[in-house]
Design brief:
This protein has 816 residues and is mainly beta. Helices cover 9% and strands 48% of the residues. The protein contains 11 helices and 34 strands. A hairpin with a 3-residue loop joins β19 and β20. The longest helix is centred in the N-terminal third of the chain and has 9 residues, at 13-21. The chain is globular. The protein starts with 12 loop residues before the first helix and ends with a strand. The relative contact order is 0.13.
Length: 816
Amino acid sequence: MIVFNLQNEAFSQSALADAHLSHRPDRTKEKKTKTTHSTLIGHLASESGQRLANHPVAKTDENFIVTGTHASNRRARDSTSPIDVISAATLRRTGQINLTDALARTNPAVSIQTMGWDAGGLVSSIRLRGLNPNDTLVLVDGKRRHYTGDVYEDGGAQSGSTPVDLNMIPSNMIDHIEILRDGAAAQYGSDAVAGVVNIITKKTGKGLNITGQTGANAYNGDGWQYQLGIDGGFHFGDDGYVHISGQEYHTDHMVTGGVDDRTGKYDNPSESTPEETRENLGITFGKTLREGIAGYGLITYAHRHAEALEQYRLPTVAPALYPWGFTPTETIEENDYAATLGLKGDNFLGFSWDVSTVYGADEDNIGNKNTANTGLLSAAGFTPTSIHISSYRMAQWTNNVDLKRNFKIANAIPVTFAFGGEHRLESYHIEQGEPASYLYGGSQAIVGLMPENAGSWSRDVYAAYADADFHPLPHWDLDFAGRFEHYTDVGNTENGKIATRYDISRRLALRATISNGFRAPTLAEEHFSSLNVSATGASGQLASNSNAAHLLGASNLKPERSTNVSGGLVTEPFPGLHVTVDVYQINIRDRIINGGNYNGLAAINAIEATGATLPEISNLNGVTANYYSNGASTRTQGLDLNADYLLHLHRYGNLNLSLGLDLNRTRLHHLSYDLNHNPILNAQGISYLTTASPRSKIILDAFWTIGSWDINIRQTRYGETKDNLSYADSAPEALRYSNKVFYEFKNTPAWLTDLEVGYRLSSRWHVAVGANNLFNVRPRKVPLENAYLGTDNYDLNSSGIPMTGGYYYGRINFNL
């Protein structure tokens, strides 16, 4: 039997014995059986949640996967495409209180940006295989999750993204996560270019789990965090269940610090993480309604308050209000909610079926406090110091019908045939800020959205798909998938996928896939516009379909198109050692990126064409304007290697060793030009796409259990990143804020060490202490002439080594 899954818990001894005694399932011998009340509801209720609630030794990779396949008896080790299964206990042992950071600690294909700028820093997102967060589809229990309403608009490879905010889902609601590292647009539709993250929730009607954790960035003396979580379930009726999960966590600012070259003091905290408090709630439920039919549902709700510190303003900016200067602070009040209702059954004209509806929305109110509108102060003698900047709402209503049936062709070739349809209504709404936020040059740090920026937009998406999984030979799997989608704003798309796997022996299998895909521009990428004002300049983000953007040569957006090819092997060279190797290539045409790169007078004219009024700015080159465009085509090539080995040390316990490696390289294949015959990207923009993500990432993990003790040590190596940095205020005037001349900066590779030591006090109580980045490794500091105001010390658009340094924590768990 071939087993792979690097990030999972160690196998129990009984599970390993089962693995060595059994062949992988003979999928040619599937039998159709009548589904009873208990078995149907059993499909809804995961047993793995109960195993994970106990001592952290589980065998979640023995569970049937539901991502990337319509077969009901497929395990990760049997998949035709590479899939990682990450258990809740593995995520918990990372010591991270939110899901995005935990995934980056456990999966080498996942990376996160060093720091988000402005309001963009208030959204948590992941990058899979170095691509834009919008190129990764997020599902919850196989259903498409809605996006955030807050656009990341501040440069880098993730500019323009409105990803799913994973941190809006209670982490203690999660049973496990399945990550499909393959193109899957033919199966799931738009966004599944880099892959799919499918969050599988707990569905048990018993148990009680309580966790608490606190810690801080010890080397900095700030960044204090805490988390409290509780989840449990109960039964109703004969087989109904409800599982409720709640979580609250808080993080303080973590400020890296730096001497402001204007004051010579450590008084500019802009390079920092946001302070935020989140309250998350999740409810799953299900029940057999009649013979062969079950109902199920899921509800999530989250509220978040967060604050991001901006650049310090000198006392000369508003001396009457702030005689010692001031630091504007961007705030967000966010409400995120979703509800799923569905019915599934086992016999409709011989088909098993699933009908569902999902509605989700994210609402964001952006504010600006400790600020001032200096133009209004000069003109009218007053200014508010706390101002409402804008509001966003992104909503998604998805309806699905899915049918599936197993049969044989000529009584010889087993086939799993699935087909279905989907309708999705997406809507995006922008509200303007209060007048004081945008009149007379607007408020400091971020200018409010004007009436010209506001509006409501929507579109319908219609889709139909079919998938046929064949077994021409007992050990040969062949899968064909096709999907048609129609967008009422960007037209039609047809996508297909072919996947195959052949098991040469019980110890070696080969697999390969080829597919084409697409990503439709989001409504935010099509319609969003804004103006940010820094301490010495301004930047305007123009809607790609606006007259202002057209002045700079913009065209209306069209979908990205992709082609994915992968191939690999799955092997167990000797008992207990499981290895997978996969190579891949992702070609993306018409990538949606932040382009334009205009500054000076051209940028000023375009910004003023939106109706905005700029404050007085001494250096006109410090004014820039951009828009989202189909600016480039890229080719991403890489290799994933995963291996794990369980050592039975007898009286010295068990030691689970694992290795994860992702080699990744993106190259520019084609650069587009705007209607003014200027290249969409400059050298800096090209570096964001091609070299800002690590060329390699290695995770070495050792998990040792002995008696009541468990010790987890993790070594993570981030490869080199390289960016073209702008010259800042301390550079020679000829270079300052140039959009043509840059400094090539390299973040050299580095190893980070994580350590956690746990002790089980009893069958119900477990305590742990740990350190992430034990030795406080940080990225290289950028040269002073590239450090804006002397305080932005790190390359904030890279996605390698975190800037936060060492974090120390303690955690306690109670299970009933």
